[in-house]
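ok, trying the design again with the full structure, not the truncated one.
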């Protein structure tokens, strides 16, 4: 209900022609009911800005908002706080909106944007591993959050299919295929790639494309293997992402295609026209320190090869040209220094670098009975997503990823998260789902089909536990908004945990199916709304609900 207060405060500001940035309107959950359900310091901020009396401004705002008959009371306390008390019927009405499972939430205090969100973007050199899983799960959930509050989000995957890594991949496949075919190899003496997925694919090609490996032109063989490998591993990456319930990406941008289509050349020509482009020590530089960067950066090395920066600028220029209002990248924490050089390059080319936001994600460790393992016990390589999902339930794995902030270091102990008891927060939440579904099953379909929302409720909210549950349900709107604006799924999983805790307490203290049929009717309406709210949250998280445990 925080957003409603912000909406009315904005209305006051607009009606009184007061200029005040909406991002500085802060509304806080009341810690003491004596001072309201929510409170704000906006009067103090306005007073400081305009050198006026905060109490007087607060009372003016209070008198204006009381005209809307939305609050049961509004009070003002020193040194200018405004305290809001909601009418009980407003809390009930807000909570029971979710009785309609198709209810469309409205967010009126934000500007809906066309957003490009780039995440995962793992090199097509093998199957996805644990680190990619965290990026994929947090990235996909963030897209779902942004979409929920009304933004138009485009998922993008940047395929790093140019450069030495792909050359070395093709050579590795060539090396293992020749080994499989017992063909003498004078071209590739060893391989830096030794993952089982590389060797298995090389063996497959040795059988499927055997003629290829008998050709004399080895450079042509490598060129062909690059194309085959990129197509194959991108397909496997899509399978891994699908196993995590990540939707297919709307755009796949090829690094190599940026070169083939002369996009990189075009960027270099445009940079060359600026005063920030220069040559030194046989290399080509960009004066990025004139903008956001700590020092200037090399675009073209003295040996004539490009740095990654050139193609990355070209990639981001394409995003700007597609007309996005906001572009977001989810990068590993080790890329922190890279953001400033890209933004500097964009600013030099005349683009608003503030439209590009970079979120960072830390690594995740996998434990088994408290012991970390970095390698697959089966194959001796980094543990892959498909191996993890052989060991752990998808839902609990995803939740364990989402239950930590993206900037927090995270360790997942498989033995602990697999343990199905109420001390495990994921299963505790799923137990709430199970209780709700079994309760409604007990009530019976005929009883449920006759449920209808009422204009006034005689019993609902009279019990303190029930009032607490209703209030927590109304908080979903604000929590999902905050999770979206902060691009932080943890806010939503924390809310879900609190909602489950309050429901369990309510379930244990209040009889829902009873001889008092009017009270039972009202409480069943509440439980249906709660069931739909849980389903709504689990849909955002893309985790299946367990109806019976």
């Amino acid at each position: 209900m925080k957003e409603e207060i912000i909406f009315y405060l904005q209305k006051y500001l607009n009606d009184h022609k007061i200029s005040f940035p909406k991002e500085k309107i802060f509304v806080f959950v009341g810690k003491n009911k004596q001072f309201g359900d929510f409170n704000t310091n906006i009067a103090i901020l306005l007073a400081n800005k305009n050198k006026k009396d905060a109490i007087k401004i607060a009372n003016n705002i209070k008198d204006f908002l009381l005209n809307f008959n939305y609050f049961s009371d509004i009070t003002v306390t020193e040194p200018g706080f405004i305290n809001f008390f909601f009418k009980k019927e407003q809390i009930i009405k807000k909570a029971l909106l979710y009785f309609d499972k198709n209810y469309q939430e409205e967010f009126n205090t934000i500007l809906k944007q066309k957003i490009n969100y780039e995440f995962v973007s793992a090199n097509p050199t093998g199957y996805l591993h644990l680190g990619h899983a965290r990026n994929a799960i947090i990235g996909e959930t963030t897209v779902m959050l942004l979409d929920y509050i009304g933004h138009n989000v485009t998922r993008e995957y940047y395929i790093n299919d140019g450069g030495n890594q792909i050359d070395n991949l093709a050579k590795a496949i060539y090396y293992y295929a020749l080994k499989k075919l017992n063909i003498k190899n004078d071209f590739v003496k060893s391989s830096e790639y030794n993952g089982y997925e590389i060797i298995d694919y090389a063996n497959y090609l040795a059988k499927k494309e055997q003629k290829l490996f008998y050709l004399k032109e080895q450079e042509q063989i490598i060129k062909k293997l690059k194309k085959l490998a990129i197509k194959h591993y991108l397909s496997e990456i899509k399978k891994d992402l699908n196993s995590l319930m990540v939707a297919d990406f709307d755009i796949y941008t090829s690094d190599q295609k940026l070169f083939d289509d002369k996009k990189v050349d075009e960027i270099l020509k445009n940079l060359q026209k600026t005063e920030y482009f220069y040559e030194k020590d046989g290399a080509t530089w960009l004066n990025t320190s004139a903008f956001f960067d700590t020092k200037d950066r090399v675009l073209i090395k003295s040996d004539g090869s490009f740095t990654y920066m050139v193609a990355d600028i070209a990639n981001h220029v394409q995003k700007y040209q597609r007309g996005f209002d906001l572009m977001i990248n989810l990068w590993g924490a080790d890329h922190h220094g890279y953001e400033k050089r890209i933004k500097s390059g964009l600013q030099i080319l005349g683009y608003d670098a503030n439209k590009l936001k970079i979120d960072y994600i830390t690594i995740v460790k996998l434990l088994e009975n408290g012991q970390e393992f970095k390698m697959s016990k089966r194959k001796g390589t980094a543990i892959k997503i498909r191996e993890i999902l052989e060991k752990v339930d998808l839902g609990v794995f995803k939740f364990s990823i989402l239950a930590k902030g993206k900037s927090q270091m995270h360790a997942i102990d498989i033995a602990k998260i697999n343990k199905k008891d109420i001390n495990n927060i994921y299963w505790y939440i799923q137990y709430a789902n199970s209780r709700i579904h079994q309760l409604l099953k007990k009530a019976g379909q005929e009883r449920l089909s006759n449920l209808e929302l009422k204009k006034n409720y005689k019993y609902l909210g009279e019990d303190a536990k029930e009032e607490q549950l209703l209030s927590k349900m109304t908080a979903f709107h604000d929590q999902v908004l905050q999770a979206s604006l902060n691009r932080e799924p943890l806010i939503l999983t924390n809310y879900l945990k609190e909602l489950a805790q309050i429901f369990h307490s309510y379930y244990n203290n209040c009889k829902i199916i009873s001889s008092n049929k009017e009270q039972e009717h009202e409480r069943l309406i509440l439980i249906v709304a709660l069931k739909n709210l849980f389903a709504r949250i689990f849909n955002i998280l893309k985790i299946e609900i367990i109806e019976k445990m």
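Keeping the full-length input from now on. Residues 343 and 409 are 27 Å apart (CA to CA).
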